[in-house]
């Protein structure tokens, strides 16, 4: 009987020690106040990124016709020197610029033929479905270590894409007509193993009609 | 009749070499059967290393070990269950739920707005909470199987669905990420030059080998799987042993869940889907009989390594993921056929 008592007492003490080291109790109002001050603001981060890094970084954008020529002749070199990606997959992103003549205004995009005419390549400027990490990653200056978790990092992409959908595309879409010439910068996503150059879609960062 | 018998014996006595030959081939085939998993693993490694120069590297070795450590945790529990002639299909979903609860408690704690109280959990607290969840779900499996005589396949299939649903409810379908460096150490850290998940799975294997070989519970597990009626008649409390085994399997799935969540720094609501199949495959390839009573933990470890090496090799060889599933399925089928053939010959 005494042995059993000692056994239960020891078990209870152990349980209390483990319990004491397992949980802590605080005032909920204090916890919420502390969390509000340290919260990651994806909108502000995306705004700063756009103004201070992406816009100046566009000067380093690759000329799309030249890039396409290089991709056709020396794919490995093109991906190695001009593409960026945070992940380890086959999808990589290029920051590009180009001038094109609008050939069609479709429901989800606008088709343009790259100029000069000798290039003869058609690409699509995305105007409806702007998703993914192309713009965030194409510049190649963000690191996964800049964020405390992947959700914050993905929220930055979501905010950048939202800005493109709400601020960049609508004014262009309202004015653009067939045969207009547009100067654009943006990002493209290419698969380095299964490379398709006939279905290039540009996520635009800037769209300027230069000739009507 | 008797002269014929005499003649047979006489023939046998004058032909000693023919008696020795079958004895030699018998022991040879016994060795082959005993080490079939190891032989298969060796051949597999040889083939992959010939086809890919990246396979036989230290980094890839640790990578494979780190990847299979989760499957080893689950497979060890599955082995105990299968040794009792049962099956546990719920381990993948239990893994997901335990991972989600661990991550959720670590990140959000428990809020009691009416009392203006926040109950936060330390690393020890969340690990214990995850383990408790897995063990309780395993106990529930064992209870329904023994109390209501529900076939293990059906009972654990029901818990598979329940646990997945609870995971979706708890996470609202979104991943819970950003769990901190301390928690990440469980899945990504190194201790004495060896990845922490490998330490965890190694300790689990050691304890399970001890349990099956050196304890009364281990003997009862084999006895129940071998002949449940005989075990009952010899006084073994079948319900208690089976419930304990399912509870252990649930607890080990929880450990797997904690490792996966830590490695990814994120609890995914769809984590662990089809992990039960990988665990069953490791058990079967390791030579444990699905009808119970025969098999070993070390055999399962070999099975898990074979599955891990196969997965790794197919990725290194750039085989399409669709073909990977076909190849894995065929390997499992082959293992079962060999197991059946061995059982017959025995």
UniProtKB/TrEMBL annotation, chain A:
SUPFAM superfamilies: TM0957-like. Pfam families: DUF2291. The chain crosses the membrane at residues 6-25. Keywords: Membrane, Transmembrane, Transmembrane helix. This is DUF2291 domain-containing protein.
From TrEMBL, chain B:
Pfam families: BPD_transp_2. One of its GO terms (molecular function) is transmembrane transporter activity. The keyword Transmembrane helix applies. The keyword Lipoprotein does not apply. It comes from the Bacteria. Keywords: Cell membrane, Membrane, Transmembrane, Transmembrane helix. InterPro entries: ABC_transp_permease. GO terms for cellular component: plasma membrane. It is found in: Cell membrane. The chain crosses the membrane at residues 31-51, 72-105, 117-138, 150-170, 190-211, 243-261, 273-290, 297-316. It is a multi-pass membrane protein. CDD domains: TM_PBP1_transp_AraH_like (cd06579). This is Ribose ABC transporter permease. The gene is rbsC.
């Amino acid at each position: 009987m005494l042995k059993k008592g000692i056994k239960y007492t020891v078990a209870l003490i152990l349980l209390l020690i483990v319990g004491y080291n397992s949980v802590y109790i605080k005032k909920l109002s204090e916890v919420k106040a502390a969390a509000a001050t340290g919260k990651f603001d994806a909108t502000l981060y995306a705004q700063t990124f756009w103004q201070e890094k992406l816009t100046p970084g566009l000067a380093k954008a690759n000329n799309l016709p030249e890039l396409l020529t290089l991709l056709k002749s020396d794919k490995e070199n093109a991906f190695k020197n001009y593409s960026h990606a945070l992940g380890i997959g086959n999808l990589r992103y290029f920051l590009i610029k180009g001038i094109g003549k609008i050939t069609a205004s479709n429901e989800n995009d606008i088709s343009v033929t790259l100029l000069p005419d000798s290039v003869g390549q058609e690409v699509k400027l995305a105007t409806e479905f702007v998703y993914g990490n192309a713009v965030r990653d194409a510049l190649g200056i963000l690191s996964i270590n800049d964020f405390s978790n992947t959700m914050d990092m993905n929220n930055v992409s979501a905010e950048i894409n939202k800005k493109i959908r709400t601020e960049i595309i609508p004014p262009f879409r309202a004015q653009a007509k067939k045969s207009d010439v547009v100067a654009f910068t943006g990002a493209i996503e290419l698969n380095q193993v299964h490379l398709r150059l006939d279905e290039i879609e540009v996520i635009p960062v800037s769209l300027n009609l230069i000739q009507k | 009749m008797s002269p014929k018998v005499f003649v047979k014996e006489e023939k046998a006595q004058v032909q000693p070499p023919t008696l020795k030959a079958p004895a030699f081939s018998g022991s040879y085939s016994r060795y082959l059967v005993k080490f079939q998993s190891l032989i298969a693993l060796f051949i597999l490694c040889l083939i992959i290393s010939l086809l890919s120069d990246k396979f036989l590297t230290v980094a890839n070795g640790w990578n494979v070990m780190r990847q299979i450590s989760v499957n080893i945790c689950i497979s060890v529990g599955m082995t105990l269950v299968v040794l009792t002639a049962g099956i546990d299909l719920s381990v993948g979903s239990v893994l997901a739920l335990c991972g989600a609860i661990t991550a959720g408690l670590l990140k959000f704690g428990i809020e009691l707005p009416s009392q203006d109280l926040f109950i936060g959990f330390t690393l020890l607290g969340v690990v214990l909470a995850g383990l408790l969840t897995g063990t309780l779900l395993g106990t529930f499996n064992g209870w329904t199987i023994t109390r209501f005589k529900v076939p293990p396949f059906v009972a654990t299939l029901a818990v598979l669905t329940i646990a997945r649903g609870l995971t979706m409810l708890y996470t609202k379908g979104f991943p819970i990420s950003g769990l901190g460096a301390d928690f990440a150490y469980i899945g990504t850290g190194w201790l004495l030059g060896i990845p922490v998940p490998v330490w965890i799975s190694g300790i689990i294997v050691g304890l399970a080998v001890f349990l099956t070989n050196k304890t009364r519970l281990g003997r009862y597990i084999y006895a129940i799987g071998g002949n449940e009626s005989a075990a009952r008649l010899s006084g073994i409390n079948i319900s208690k042993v089976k419930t304990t085994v399912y509870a252990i399997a649930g607890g080990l799935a929880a450990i797997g869940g904690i490792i996966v969540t830590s490695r990814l720094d994120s609890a995914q609501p769809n984590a662990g889907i089809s992990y039960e199949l990988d665990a069953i495959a490791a058990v079967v390839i390791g030579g444990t009989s699905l009808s119970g009573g025969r098999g070993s933990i070390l055999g399962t470890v070999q099975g898990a390594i074979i599955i891990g090496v196969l997965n790794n090799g197919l990725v290194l060889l750039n085989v399409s993921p669709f073909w990977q599933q076909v190849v894995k399925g065929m390997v499992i089928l082959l293992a079962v056929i060999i197991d059946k053939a061995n059982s017959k010959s025995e």
